[in-house]
Amino acid sequence: MRFGGYGKGGRLAYRLAALFVPPYKERIRLSGMNKKGFVEHTASIHHPQMFLGDNCFIGDRVVLYERRGGGAITFGNRVEINRDTLIETGIGGFIKIGDHSSIHPGGILFAYIEPIIIGAGVMIASNCCLYSYDHAVAPHDSIRNQAPVSKGPIVIGDEAWLAAGCVVMSGVSIGNGAVIGAGSIVTHDIPENAIAAGVPARVFKMRN
Fold it and tell me: Are 159 and 119 in contact (CB under 8 A)?
């Protein structure tokens, strides 16, 4: 692990280290053995502005991708990105994820025009989708020919939890410690320590 890194030689070292460890979450512990963390050899990194904190984990088939002038992807310390997650920036959008936050398998984060900012200790469950933009739908032209639009950034506060299959739309803030129920579509702000669910998500209880 001490030879691990993001270049070809470092990725090879990661692959050799993983031969002796069971797959999936068992390999998260490898990220604690090197400040550069651990990147599965099947992960695809195509982003010129990627900044990782100490001891990050990037799992199987994760894709980090920059398109059309996208901004940086920045991870804090001990961020965990699990298998089959797609993280993409474009048209000036950027992504920032705080210390000890995790994204479980199948997550999609698309930051176009506006950023996606995720605080510390946030848990994002499997198959959640965050989009900081939308397609324009003006009647004068086909949807595919229109430039994307945005209502603003997505901001998720510290220690929030998004259960499986949530969708968070542009312009939404989710407060510290909030919980979003499985399968919810979040189109409006959710306050701190609220428990919200539904389509669209509505607050039905407070944690405090």
Answer: yes
